Amino acid sequence: MGVEEQRAGEFYVERDVMNELCLDELARRRTHSTRPLLKERVKDSLRCSVPKLKRSVLSFVPILSWLPRYSVRQDALGDLISGISIGIMHLPMGLAYALLASVPPVYGLYTSFYPVLMYCVFGTSRHISVGAFAVTSIMIGTTTERLAPNSNFMTLNGTNGTEVLDVVARDALRVQIAASTTLLSGIFLFLLGMIRFGFMVTFLSDPMVRAYMTGAGIHVVLSQLPSLFGIRTGRFTGPLSQVYLLIDICRHLPETNIAAVVVTLVALAVLITVKELNIYFEKKMPVPVPIELITIIGATLISYYCKLHNLYKVAVIGQIPKGLQPPRSPDVSMWGSVVGDAFVVGIVGYALNISLGKIFGQKHGYNVDSNQEMVALGLCNIVGGCFQCHAIAASPSRTLLQDSTGGKTQVVGLISSVLVLIFILQLGTLFEELPKAVLACIVLVNLKGLFMQFKDIPALWKSNKVELLVWLVTLVCTILLNLDLGLGASIGFSMLTVIFRTQLPRYSILGHVPGTELYLDTDTYEEAKEIPGITIFRSSTTMYYTNAQLYLDALQEKSGIDVGKLLMKKKKRDTEEKRKVKKEKNEARKEAKKQNDVNGYLPNRTFHPEDKGDVEKGSPDLKLNQTAIALVDRPINGQVNWAFEQQGNGFDQDSKTGIHGDDHITQTSSTGEEGEMGRTSVNNTHTIILDLSTTNFADTATVKTLKNIFLNYRKIDIDIFLTGCQVCVVEQLSSAGFFSESIPKSCVFTTIHDAVLHSLRLHGASDVPIIYEYALDLTCTTKM
Predict the structure, then answer these.
(1) Per the database record, which ranges form the STAS domain (predicted)?
(2) Residues ≥6 apart with Cβ < 8 Å to 664
(3) Is the distance from CB of 774 to CB of 531 less than 8 angstroms?
């Protein structure tokens, strides 16, 4: 065996044909695993040392790792500018997203303070901006309104007998529900992160997540329409709630508050115009214009001096208490009612965090630990729940702003938290006259990024229609089934598409490309030609219990050999032969008895010579029947089927065949009638090679299917070889008892080319009823 370099771009290889046994011997397969035993791994995980303790502490509290190495000269200025910009964005977004969560606005400011500080300590991403976000806020709002609807807080006015809404009691209960849901969500995430369950987000495909965010954005828009038009509508929960809400909005449109509509139009015009200018002049301005903060300041002044609330009934955010609230333990008795909502909120928030974190981590060249991110987000929600915050997530708009303004570390979060704290302690009460319509406009304008994801539809139509179907189904389910049921249905449908893809793989017949050792799909490549007598079959996906029968059906269809029919015909012919032989024996006995009566006593089972001749007269017919079976079975003419004779190499190692350049392999045999020498199948197949290079595991159904293929095709004298098996697949086949005396390990070959050469050598004897001349023009020479 050797390798000789000929010239640049070409190589010359001379080696023996490799089956699995030869490969094990050549590569010196290990008899034991190099991986430590489970007992040793458990001991190592429980063993404590100073370096290990230090690594554990630094990984659990990342700020201890990056803060001592913080470069003031390189990072401080960018972090300061970015922190101020993000803090300014937190103020209007916190107030606006609190309304989405159906809690008083000040609790949105708390959400922009406590969890942000926690993430600076425990988070691993340097660029994402966590805090209040529209999607998680609307999910919390759905839960709070379901458990604390307005109808539960209507009281009768003793003066005129009308119903009055007890806003204070309603808001207090909703804050408690939001805090309990947030705390439970944080516990879920923290526990999952501690058991290293961060990989679960991989089950959320990118098209599904983007479509879910877009559907949630539509929920946000519909929830803000009443504030934009200055009307009051009912609250709806459960499937089709958004349809009922839209109908209710249309029903109340005659009650539109004109002043609120004017405020809405002016605010939208200002926000959209300045935001587009920020994008247009992005490269010329060091930081974008904080139009959200300018808008709420201007709207508050106009509302205060024009008395919009008193004179025109424009809804305002109302009282904002000064100072921080003390921590409170959430009501654990509510957990049974919000457990499903808490889990969904946590998973959605984590999916947002890790997707944005991975994107910016790859952009700036650092790793984001998915498990630590889950722990960090869980701790943020746990601490936030104790301080009456609602669930948080990373905001795409704030994250993009942080990156564009030069933020490089988590110090940005610390600086923005300081600004939010100043606003809570001193400035919050100044914005009590801020119209809710302005906050609704801020929410809508910042949803632009979500709705830009509708551009995914034409892109997916061109690239992958299955993922487009996932995108559309997720969007529809999210809108019609609400956010919690919609997420479950979307994940289920996404999983079904994976199953259907494995159920409908592409099955191919491979052919040899002249001048190479390559075997490619004959339907795709014109130069790929089938080798006469050899069928090479490949599936585009792994074979397992859901598609094992489909694999078998496709093999029969592609090879043109219906094993079931052939075996039935063979069984029928065997039965007829046995019946005929039995009939011949009975007739012989009767004839012998008749002769005994005529000629005297003769011993039992003794025949006259003429009787024997009569029996032998049936032999040609019997032989003719056996020859007719050749339509089903290839006669081996007394020769041994070497493919199954030896457990060892399966071929004569001393005989060698060189194939190089324009050498030809010619197989000849004596001609004869097709009924005598031909094959049952129209294509004269004597070997089927199964390429299992796409298989990554072998379950019970796979082992059983492969066994049936070997045994059934052997009955009609067709050899089966396996190629491209990964080590784990061979080990699983061995453990399942697949290999035996009838199915030796030597039928597994390293490459398709090895199996082809072995088959040609095996069936190249003169007794093989196949006549063809086939040239293998290869740049590699193989010895057998």
Answers:
(1) 524-759
(2) 773, 774, 775, 776
(3) yes
